[in-house]
Amino acid sequence: MHLDRSAGRTAGRLGAAVVASVALLSAVGCSTDASTGVREAGGAPDARASAAAAARAKGGGEVSEGRPAPSMPEPAVLAQARVNIADGQTVGVGMPISVTFPRPVPAAERKAVENWLRVQTSSGATGAWSWVKDQNLLDGQRVDFRPRRTYWQPGTTVTLRRGSHGVSHFTIGRSLVATVDVSAHEMTVRTGGTTQRIPVTTGRPGLDTWKGTMVVMDKQSEVLMDSHTVGLGAEYRGNYFWAVHLTTSGTYVHQNPRANTEAGHRNVTHGCVGLATDGTAKRFYDQVRVGDVVTVTGSNKDTVAAGNGYGDWNLTWKQWLAHSAAGETTTA
């Protein structure tokens, strides 16, 4: 069900773009990822950064806003860094900053990379970079930043400086956290001070839904799902609507006609979370944005790996720091 068959895919599959299209998908879970493409943080280096690039490459000078540059030379690999959040985008509270590279960064260079990837926030959060083994990349090709405490504070403005190679700005929107209780066949959605309880059907025994915390990667109004692509023969092939994408291995929250009778009663899906066709699925789809949080409890499946989409929050802070070269930092 969740065996990955897409090792050749690039980091672009983790893009945070929202696409309203029909996609033929070829990996695992209910289907594969949405192939939306990574969106590099926009903007050329600002004038001050460009003017100071040579000095900083030698370990001198200052980064913008008067902050001293790291003492170590700027790694050349930052020129090819790609960021999962577009400049000016508003994302949910769970979205980590994820930076990927076209080749693995050697262990000896990782501290310098982390130090030159400067994160500033309006809330002054404490956080850290950590090297995540992406499901479709080699070790050393992806590094993520997340706050120490659970999720970002709503309304926070975030600035990411990629050394002398550009600046990205994004905003943390309102909080939406959905909790799927597999045994109760129910999803509780908490947002804006309100709570909704939605009947669901999840993965049937043997094809259980992943356990743990996932972050919305993207969403599509219509996705063509084919059981042949996940090793399940001819069990299903058809368009599924209002699909909210949770893992690279193909987990979605989406409309499923079987949820009309089974939601709230039995788990009958191939691993996704099914919602009824009476408008329930579309209402959830409409209120969700990239970066929102979906946590699954009560499942017999393993916990989602950090690199299977954005499973970063399934690691304790100690575990997170174990894969950080530069350690904890304050983003004031």
Automatic annotation (TrEMBL):
Active site, per annotation: 254 (proton donor/acceptor), 272 (nucleophile)
Molecular function GO labels: acyltransferase activity; peptidoglycan L,D-transpeptidase activity
GO process terms (BP): cell wall organization; peptidoglycan-protein cross-linking; regulation of cell shape
TM ranges: none
Domain L,D-TPase catalytic span(s) in chain numbering: 176-297
Protein name: L,D-TPase catalytic domain-containing protein
PROSITE patterns named among the record's database cross-references: LD_TPASE, PROKAR_LIPOPROTEIN
Pfam family, one: YkuD
Region (Disordered) residue spans: 49-73
Signal peptide, first to last residue: none
NADP among keywords: no
GO cellular component: extracellular region
